[in-house]
Amino acid sequence: MVLVKNFKKLSFLVYGLGLTGQSVVNFFHRNNIQNFQVWDDINRDLYKRRRPESLNKALKEVSYIVLSPGVSLNKSKNKTKLTKYKKKIITDIDLIFLLKKFWKSIVITGTNGKSTTSKIVQHLLIENNYKALLGGNIGTPILDLQIRKDNILVIEASSFQLSHSKFISPDYAILLNITNDHLDWHGSMKNYIDSKFKIFEKQKKTQFSFVNKNFKKNYQNRNLKGKLIIPDEKKYKKLKLKIKNLYLNSKINDENMTNVLSLAKVFKISEKSFLTSFDEFKGLPHRYEIFLKKKNYTFINDSKATSFEASKFALLNTKNIFWILGGLPKKNDKIYLNNLKLNLVKCYIIGKHVNFFKKQLKNSKVNFTITKNLKNSILQILKDITLFKKKENIILLSPSAASFDQFRNFEKRGENFKKLVKQYARKYI
Q1: What is residue 368's predicted lDDT score, i.e. its pLDDT?
Q2: How far apart are CA 368 and CA 85, in angstroms?
């Protein structure tokens, strides 16, 4: 990647040495940028030669502080020091836009479905002969990509990354949805919403802003400059009738895929090509992943659903549900089932925070049992199915909670679920 003029004259402090922070350090090394220091509140040995003797002095003197998305300004033990130099704080995605050595950029954010949406956007573009690269919050840090001038960058951006952004200016900015999430990190719902709208703040009149109708007024009240596009869900639903892909031909994806259709029209991608790309799309692991379907049993791994709002999409889209939930609940999250038209057969609570989920389900007056772990849940469900005698049985892992009480991450939780299903389901199906 060719650096812009004067970039090497800038100085940086990389604050936080998780996956993203290390990608920033590696990027600096690859591009022979020497004027940088590193700081991590926990790991003092990583890149220790570049650790400043005085954090105060480093914060004061550097041009920019590249803050890792895992670092919460509200929770950091150096909150006061960081807040003092808040105007200097940027993110790894900001560095990409400072360089600006790519053809076009698409930045996608939202509470639910941004990974699937980002992946299918990349897939759609590649199928139509665009050189699209995908990175960001989806797993590959954007600075780890080998970017060329003819690339379109598809960037999945989290609220953590956007919160402190200063230079993000996408050619196409897509806001999918906003529901209650990450309030412990942001401090308030207002802060969370403001972070999502950061993708539009630096846009020019020639750039496109995709916003669903629920946030049209919010967008307009901010006096933003991009070309506003409100995706037409009715048009997508008509086209959806022609989609054969089981993963996408569901209510879960309607709102988000409406945005993809609107983007495809801007890129002048034909309806035929759009449908072909959709039917070939394989989906993403741990996101409403139908990994086993045999006889009248369907097993769905939705481990990525770490809040009730995320689980709600899966619950509304299926029937005769044997629902596994539980884990580390998020701040202010609530499970409300009474006003939803759900076809829940029974719920199975796992994890170390049983009392929270027990209380929530009692209020919703649903049938539930405490199984504590995934193995017990699967075995109990397989027994229960023989008692309830439903024509169709959906076994759904959609935890409505983070995984950290029992698993390292949601991926490990989902993989464990699939492994156990394959191990024990043979006796029954």
Answers
A1: 97
A2: 50
Q: Report yes or no: 46 and 24 within 8 Å, Cβ to Cβ.
A: no
Give residue 78's identity as a one-letter amino acid code.
N
Residue type, 90: I
pLDDT tops 50 at residue 1: no
Closest listed residue to residue 278, CA positions, set 314, 311, 318, 236: 236
Q: Which of 90, 120, 147 is the last residue of a domain?
A: 90
CATH number of the domain enclosing 361: 3.90.190.20
pTM: 0.82
Q: What is the pLDDT of residues 128-154, one digit of tens each?
A: 999 999 999 888 999 999 999 999 999
Enumerate residues 6+ apart whose C-beta is below 8 A from 130.
152, 267
Flag whether pLDDT at 366 surpasses 80.
yes
What's the gap between Cα 303 and its chain centre? 13
Q: How many domains does the chain have?
A: 3
| Rounded Cα gap, residues 212 and 193, in angstroms | 14
pLDDT tens digits along 44-69: 889 999 999 999 999 999 999 999 98
H/E stretch holding 123: helix 114-127
Residues forming beta bridges with residue 36, ordered by sequence position: 12
Determine the Cα angle at 47 with ends 42 and 48, to 5°: 70
Q: Is 4 contained in some domain?
A: no
Residues 6 or more apart from 338 whose CB is under 8 A from it? Answer: 363, 364, 365
Euclidean distance between CA atoms 415 and 300, whole angstroms: 12
Q: Which of 73-87, 183-197, 308-322, 326-340 has the least mean pLDDT?
A: 183-197
Reduce the DSSP state of residue 334 to 3 states and report it. coil
Q: Residue 109, SS3?
A: strand
Q: Among 90, 106, 130, which residue terminates a domain? A: 90
